[in-house]
Queue: 3 jobs
Job 1
Amino acid sequence: MHVLVTGGGGFLGQAIVRRLLARGDQVKALQRSKAPDLVSLGVECISGDISDAVAVNRAVSGCEAVFHVAARAGVWGSYDEFHRANVTGTENVVSACQAFGIRKLIYTSSPSVVFDGRDESGIDESVPYPTRYLTHYPLTKAIAERIVLTANGPKLATVSLRPHLIWGPGDNHLVPRLIQRARQNKLRRVGPGTNLVDATYIDNAAEAHLLASNALDIGSTVAGKAYFVSNGEPVPLWNLIDRLLACADIPPIRRTIPATTAYNLGWLFEVIYKLAGRRGEPPMTRFVARQLSTSHWYSLDAARRDFGYVPRISIEEGLKRLAVSLR
């Protein structure tokens, strides 16, 4: 099968690419920067921005399926930046799929599209989108997810996956960010530390995308639906963070800050940074304060039932692999 992976040079994108190649697919990747690692694997790499319709059309041409992984992530930045990448980019991908007769579109979403600032304990896909968001990323990802699911029809089958907190060897965002803040003594436990979180090991996240692709077809059970993806192992967030840091020989985080104080500080920092026109990320935001102090774990029943998703790499095994990669 000829397959395109947008954001193929990223952490998740590259893991998906490697699995597609392993099963014998011919793979193209679209990303803004050069990806020598992908070129060495025999991937046809196309340089371009996802918000550029011409580049997207060039990448989609000749393919049979598309994994749309590329996105603008983060908790700070202008709405226009997030909208351009996440909404306009997704509109371009959907339009290209329709124009070139693509049969399958697998979209990488986020559980944050339904996060309203409160605990998410064992929730399933019936939870609606909230009426307000604390930052631009989940808002624009929610808009994009609805675009993808609405596009499902008699000629194009679409599915949306919501992997939570992807981590593991090769991570260029979550783990390095934690390590950097811990080494700079800028990391604090937010709240009592009892909130449960279910993160996703990279191999499990990538495998979920291929399983969903295998089950996806026009009129299939998974077509037009969104699915939560995680490890199926909810654990106290700060216990997990301490164990991730231990892989880099960093001691546990002991200093704490009340959840309400963190939220109020986040609001204050946001106001100051906006008034000052500062582009750097504030040390705390309302979204981060809520994410660090509330529970986030999800029912995997739908993913198990509809496309046979089973997390094969446990947290324990994942931590061993991460420690080896960091050392």
Job 2
Amino acid sequence: MTSEPEFGLDLIPASAFTFEELTEAYNHTRVDYLVPMPMNAARLREYVQIYDIDMEASVVAVDGNEIVGLSMLGVRPGRCWITRLGVIRSKRRRRAGWTMVNHLIEQARLKQARYIVIEVITDNQPAYNLFIKRGFSETRKLLVLRRPPGPPAGDPPAARIESLNQAAAEALLERRTSTPSWVDEKESLLNAGNLAAFYAHLPDGSEGWLVYQDTPWQLGRLVIQTEAGDPQTVGRALLHHLHRTYPHKDTKTENLPLLDPHWPVFQELGYLEMFRRTEMVLHFTAEP
């Protein structure tokens, strides 16, 4: 069940606004957030393209002539994703967030989604409580990691490493057995582009691969998979090779599950936890 907008609040499709207007509104809603993550218009446009944001289904909350909040909806076959939800500080606790979330849930139903997901920054208790109240349940914790430039310390395990191009990287993603988040689903990675991969073969028969994005200024979007053997040994070989190959590049990767078996190796190789997200999901029944 959805609720009507609060009195005086209009919900307008995000497509009715320019990217400059949306960027200004978004930054205004995030100034006091735990992790503000400011945007510019070019980055927001790229964000919409990478994550399949439906601008008609996304919404801006307006009170008179004032934008008081916005939220976006990613749409892919069978599933949707709420993102960039924000309300300006002076307008919070007036059901604007609740109203926008209900609107996006309704839009997801109209898209015939089986479920809708959201990621809330851990310790953002008001947002967490909103989604719990609306029927979402917590699925897992996700880590946002960063590693400063520099070669790795220590010696890697003996391994034969193959360097692979984007086409091969795309083929590896088809073999992925770990559960991706929206941010690192195959669709997101292909939309982002500039992918490459390494495949590691170890003497004991262990093997696995690492897909990553290589841009002129940064490495990112890491997906690591062990196909045989010990994940930490395979992960150590792959991450050592990555940072020996690109010792001068900063690295940022998002949404590594806290329980991923490779997480200890990321820590060993100098990755720092920037913050955590709590992934939540709402499954739809056959009848709204």
Job 3
Amino acid sequence: MKVLFDLEHPAHVHLFKNTIRSFEQKGHETKIIAKNKDITADLLDRLGFEYELVSKYYPKMYQKGYGVIEKDLKLLRIARKFRPDVLTGLLTPHIAHVGRLIGKPSITFTDTEEVKLGNMLTFPFTEVICTPSCFLKDLGPKHVRFNGYKELAYLHPDRFEPDPTALEDAGLSKGEEYIILRLISWSASHDVGLRGIGADSEMSLVNELEKYGRVLISSEGPLPKELEDHKINCPREKMHSLMHYAGLYIGEGGTMATESALLGTPAVHIESTSKGIATGSMCGNFLELRDRYGLLYFYPDQKQALVKAVSILENKGSKYDWKTKRDRMLEEKVDVSSWMTDFIERFPQSRDEYFAGKKPGRLT
């Protein structure tokens, strides 16, 4: 079997890395296509994967339309040569377009409801759309739900074990309390019309959080001079370990908020629409993690978020509480990487079994 993976973001590398390994171990042939965004290529290098960069990241909205066409054409050329049986990726329109052009199925994964442009460019052309079971929308006859979150493809305890050396790498003393703050660039197409921490208010947020521990900042863009000393200095492959041991995660990154929650670290997300509505209220993952498990909280601005963060930090037993809640969540969810591997490998039989009311492979 030949499978083509399209990885457009560092998070996509994490999502598919275990599935790619599984396919390679089973003797299947894989092809990885990547976009040179952030640390995508660096992650692939560190994991020892062979890949081909076919497009660069365009930060401006007027450039993104050209980028779609450019990558479609390059991917079409590669696919015709590789001749995949299946193409897959996380809400990337290119596999859907090219799959349709070469007459091969594309399997699209997504967990975000409000990505209007990405959905419009992808859904009409893809063969099947796989989402977490808590996804709020019904996507129609192509929609397959799995009982988990995409981050459990790499953070499930069967897949991930925290590395305590991450603490020393980050310059932390033994037993030192610390908080991770995430700042994003707001340049992605799905960030249009959204906002997070108020402009030029990062320092005041850091000052408040520092009352409870050292503040380490993960940022997509350059930090102001007054915040440079807070920049995380840790090997990128150990970032999830650093998140695991943290006393709190707070910030604008939705993926990192979910990752922290699934690792058993209290997570507070800050993001809103232009109308001041917290985006978490429109996301099935966030609602379930808050309302069913109490692992993650979300707010439209940093003032409300800081109140919640302080209440968590002042509770000395919060990490134990989160571990207990995480254990309950894990009992109810599956190893998503195993589910993905089985679903892709046996497609279209796996899809047909799902719609027939049977279990696709070992997992539901």
